[in-house]
Amino acid sequence: MISRPDEPPDADSPSAEAPSKTRRKHAMHALQDLGEALVALDPKRLKDLDLPERLVDAIIQARGITAHEGRRRQIQYIGKLMRTIDPAPLQAALAAWAKGPREENARFAAIERWRDRLLVDPAALNEFVGAYPQADRRHLESLIHDANLERARGGPPHRYRELFRQLKAAVAIEQ
User: Fold this and answer.
1) What does the alpha-carbon distance between residue 129 and residue 5 come to, in Å, rounded to a whole number?
2) Considering the domain 99-174 in this protein, what is its CATH number?
3) Tens of pLDDT along 101-134?
């Protein structure tokens, strides 16, 4: 029986069940790319992923291969081994690790902006305590005063750093 393009394929036809060769190749290349990312991963983080021993051995071996063709074949082998595991948790972990430093840097930059504002604007303390009510207002006032004195004297920035640590702790408690 010949099916027309506007009709759905029969359940008995092979094209309804198996993905095309192109789709299979795309899936294999995606697994190889994921394997390439695992090879580049820090060894400590690789241990956190709880991968099968054969896959970990193949990844460690790939790190030592410098010849282009040998490395390419090893990455293909890693892709083959990865067909037996679910790649979704690995992709999620890699994505989380990739975005983690950006978020952390942005949070630190925001805390630094608060610190700088607190040192020049007396009204900023009210805003900070309003945004983070668990912050110890009296301790922050003391640190701001001491940090300004440190800067005026040109001394080492001990209170300046302590102010940052206190702001960081107050922001961390809120989140």
Assistant:
1) 66
2) 1.10.60.30
3) 777 788 889 999 999 999 999 899 999 999 999 9
